[in-house]
Design a protein that fits this description.
Structural class: alpha+beta
Number of domains: 3
Mean pLDDT: 91
CATH superfamily of the largest domain: Glutaredoxin
Strand content: 25-35%
Strand order of the largest sheet: 14-13-12-16-17
Shape: globular
Number of helices: 10
Length: 349
């Protein structure tokens, strides 16, 4: 399963700052190399080069639209990398860490960075799940602590940043809690870019498909540009398969999806919905041919901005949704085997 997470969501309609910010510090073991500094200005993505000499960096960097940026460091000779997020603020932003723990670089020196590092120290870096069974426990506990941290720091943009991250990482958490946290933020924080993104995500979570309720209808084009409406498939079960030509787990699961199409030819409609960008249509069509993918194949060709991909809250691939003959959601999962078991439990459908 591939997940779309917070990563570097750095775009904002707000005016860009006509200032620079000083980044300085020591990351033991990095030696001399070039790192990449990612930010956005006027909604456009930009990169600058940070020069690290003998483990040290001291350089002015540009502000992003909302102040958030990411520094990406190279690891080894195989093209690996690791990144650290920071707020570009007036003053000197200080980095401290080691090459062995690039995921735990402390960023301090300015108010929002001090707070973000406080969060990392007290919440994010506290638990390392030793086993898979305990991972879910820590995942839930970390979410609870994050929400408490947000509530305790209502005047910080970092809280809006963390709230957006929570809505992405734990979409199953009660939406009412997220709404309460958002309303608890100071007005200026709610109006910040991450505050606005959190509000959009909460709206998506509030309106996303819910088990037992009909999903929103849509009309989408196939590989030939012909549009198809989901409503036309009322009267039979429908399997929506959200995938992409770039998604290895999606491709590996296709034989099982094809098997379901063959097993229930008259009672189950399989509809593939590919998350593809405007320039990846040829690769999408090639994947369909190469892997002999069956069923109706559709795509908005708007990447993650497509109304269905975003409105259905699809941020993990593959994602499968099984709909009943009335168009209501029966099951949502990232494992096609769950769909197989559910269909078996339904008997003759």
């Amino acid at each position: 399963m591939l997940t779309i997470g917070l990563a570097v969501l750095l775009a904002s309609p707000s005016p860009a700052f006509a200032q620079t910010c000083q980044v300085a510090g020591t990351i033991t073991g990095l030696g001399t190399q070039k790192a990449t500094y990612y930010y956005t200005r006027m909604g456009q993505s930009h990169t600058d080069t940070l020069r690290i000499v003998n483990d040290k960096v001291a350089q002015a960097v540009n502000y992003g639209d909302d102040g958030m940026a990411t520094i990406e460091f190279r690891i080894g000779e195989q093209g690996g990398s690791a990144g650290v997020s920071l707020w570009a603020e007036p003053g000197t932003v200080r980095l401290q860490g080691t090459k062995q723990h690039l995921d735990r670089i402390e960023v301090t020196g300015t108010p929002e960075n001090n707070l973000l590092t406080e969060y990392n120290r007290t919440v994010r870096w506290q638990e390392v799940p030793p086993t898979k069974s305990e991972a879910a426990y820590y995942y839930t506990r970390q979410g609870q602590r994050t929400r408490q941290f947000i509530q305790a720091h209502a005047a910080a943009r970092t809280s809006a940043y963390l709230l957006y991250d929570q809505t992405m990482a734990q979409p199953e958490h009660p939406v009412a809690d997220y709404e309460k946290l958002l309303q608890g933020l100071k007005p200026a924080v709610r109006q910040s870019w991450y505050g606005q993104q959190a509000a959009k995500r909460i709206t998506v979570l509030r309106n996303q498909p819910t088990v037992g309720k009909p999903v929103a209808d849509f009309s989408m084009a196939d590989t030939m540009g012909v549009k198809h409406s989901l409503a036309t498939y009322r009267g039979k079960y429908v399997l929506l398969d959200f995938w992409g030509h770039w998604c290895g787990p999606c491709i590996r699961a296709m034989p099982k999806v094809n098997a379901l199409h063959q097993q229930y030819p008259d009672k189950l409609a399989v509809i593939g919905i590919a998350m593809e960008g405007p320039n990846s249509a040829p690769l999408w069509k090639k994947a369909i041919r190469q892997y002999q993918i069956v069923g109706l194949q559709l795509s908005e060709l708007q990447a993650e901005e497509g109304p269905v991909i975003s409105g259905y809250n699809i941020n993990a691939f593959p994602t499968y949704m099984l709909l009943d003959p009335k168009g209501a959601l029966v099951l949502r999962t990232t494992n096609v085997d769950d769909i197989t078991k559910k269909l078996v439990s339904l008997g003759s459908l």
